[in-house]
Amino acid sequence: MLRNALKAIRRAIAQALAKVLPWDSKLDRIEAKLARMESLLERTYAHVNLGLADRVFVEEMFVRAHGCLPNLDRPRTFNEKLAWTKLHRHEPIYAELADKSRCKHYVREHLGSQFIIESIVEYDSAHELDFSSLPDRFVLKPSHGSGWTIIVWDKATADLRAIRRTLHQWMSTNYYCFQREPQYRPLVPKLIVERLMLDAGGKPPDDFKFHCFHGKVAYVQVDLDRHTAHRRNFYDRTWQLQPFEFSPSNDEAGPRYPKGKDIRRPDKFAELVQAAEKLAAPFDYVRVDLYLVEHEIFFGEMTFTHEAGAALFYPRKWDEIWGDLWTLKNA
Asked: Within a 10 A sphere around the Cβ of 154, how many other Cβ atoms?
């Protein structure tokens, strides 16, 4: 999309010319306008499609992503089982853990307070947001969605009016409308402010996404260079790089996030696995995201419908391999 192309141009300028401000600020303004237009179009499309029955919507979304109808009566592949859960998983625990505010209570109880990135403050609406009371750098995210995060690196130079406009849009949107993921439907929005976690190099820390089946880690997803040349690796629980890619597709029908270079196993890998499995124990499938910051482990989020079931395996046989790991409860 045009917005993604602008992001790529901005990254190239930043790398080659060390943020030449006149160009960068112009592109920032253009991108902000495009972001608002895209958000409006997405919300309009989502609300129009609310007229479709859930099963019809889920089938149409699956066909757009995978090119075939899912078997929702006897799902076999991983993505078919994700689609099935969108129609059948309505238990309150899934909504509680999808909520980025309420889930902290669960993590505190099952792991301990030391794993929590505590909120600086939480608001009921973007109108209440008081920038003057916040530190120089921080993270903003609504509690009721996924992928909605704003990093404020320097409050003094950030476009606070544009940030507030974006937050208003997010806070007035029910994330369920986009992909029909039922855990998001009942959520009451909160606006969360957290401290910005950085590694020793002053960058956002690596996050490790543990795909857990029946309480056991099967694969670990590591996203690399997310803000420059996004790559995605998968490892098994012994930290062996896997021979597949699993990503949304790009315009050429290949993986949007292809495999990157092999990386060293993290020093605290055993502790990361242990923490993920404690949180995953009650569930037949969940993805547990954890951060490692200066040898300390912090909780990120728990995800029950990875990529909303719209990511592809390359080669596709791995969709069945993952599906065989998952025995659906109540199917």
From this structure: 8
